Amino acid sequence: MTTELNQGEQFVADFRANAAALTTANAYNPEDEHDACGVGFIAAIDGKPRRSVVEKGIEALKAVWHRGAVDADGKTGDGAGIQRRVPQKFFKDHVKVIGHRAPDNKLAVGQVFLPRISLDAQEACRCIVETEILRFGYYIYGWRQVPINVD
Q: Where is the Glutamine amidotransferase type-2 domain (predicted)?
């Protein structure tokens, strides 16, 4: 019995095939995959809220204590925390403010860390992200600089 892969499964299969080819060509070493902190996602696939999901999220946050999620200035951070749901009204209101009609279905939000120093590198990364989002059939309403309090 054969089954077709969905887009996500196909993406993973392609990634693994590419990683294997790069490893064979000595252009990639999976052992180097330890040099950066990760992102954790804890979710109830059925969408039903439950306390155990929040408790597991808190456990995941505790696992990155070594980073502290605080920048060198001791004041700013990278937003480490728990978000229970994407605040649909907030982002749909923002979509309207920038001159678009908010969709009837739910919005998704991404957080992307771009290079800080090189504007050329920032733009190259932004192009890669946008290309992949559009390739999967999604729409991009825009990029938003997250407001910060520098006091």
A: 37-151
